[in-house]
């Protein structure tokens, strides 16, 4: 969004801006370099993954020097070398998503420094989604849109610390399956894929446990987060028996 400002900045300034803007635990994957870094401290990053090819190895050296010059410590004690493959952009994307999820699930921890419980061990199905504000975003054509800002709260099962995450981070941690279901105060909504819809309607035409969602839960009136809107979902009253 602020690309003009970035273009004028020196590489050192760009790196500084980028890294200092990341939360600790966030990943940085500079496009096209085959490298995955994680910010692990105030002035520290750790290289997690390098692709097994010459370009990636060279980028690793160049970026390492650049970050060191900018005052960032780069840890490289535990770098996973990922085999290079000829993948389609779609496959490459899926693979990178899986890798990010793996890192998130195996390294993101409770923010209580005395605890250390992995976030993947939290009861993620009990997460609560909260609308925390409104923002204006400008799209590529320069049009302004309202954007809702949501946060996802999860609670540590060990020390009860409440952790507030960005939806994208939560999605990465929780995975697709958990993102397909959503709990409102009265019902559990389960997004259905096409095959399941066909199967359910064939066996029960006009099934009344299937609805199409808008912005609000028709049972409780609760505002639904964006990823739950405009979907074909099956609903089940909370506390009802499974059929
Ligand atoms: Zn904890």
Draw up the topology in text.
Layout lengths: L2 H6 L2 H10 L6 E2 L6 E7 L2 E8 L2 H16 L3 E3 L4 E3 L6 H19 L20 E11 L5 E12 L6 E4 L1 H8 L1 H4 L1 E3 L3 E5 L2 H10 L6 E3 L19 E6 L6
Parallel strand pairs: 3-4, 3-5
Antiparallel strand pairs: 1-2, 2-3, 6-7, 7-8, 9-10, 10-12, 11-12
Helix pairs in contact: 4-5
The structure holds zinc ion.
Structure description:
- The protein has 243 residues and is of the alpha+beta class.
- It folds into three domains: 6-107, no CATH class; 111-179, no CATH class; 180-243, no CATH class.
- It contains seven helices and twelve strands.
- Strands 1, 2, 3, 4 and 5 form a five-stranded mixed β-sheet that branches.
- Strand 7 (144-155) and strand 8 (162-165) form a beta hairpin.
- The model is unreliable at 1-6 (pLDDT under 50).
- The structure holds zinc ion.
- Zinc ion (ZN) binds next to loops.
- Residues 110, 112, 115, 117, 156, 158-159, 161 line the site of zinc ion.
Ligands (ions, cofactors included)? zinc ion
- Cα-atom Rg, whole angstroms? 21 Å
As for the number of domains, it is 3
Continuous helix count: 7
Total beta-strand segments: 12
What percent strand?
25-35%
Please summarize the sheet with the most strands: 5 strands, mixed
The CA-CA distance between the termini, in Å, is 49 Å
Tertiary shape: globular
Short key terms for the protein model shown above:
243 residues, 7 helices, alpha+beta, 4-stranded antiparallel β-sheet, 12 strands, 5-stranded mixed β-sheet, binds zinc ion, 3 domains
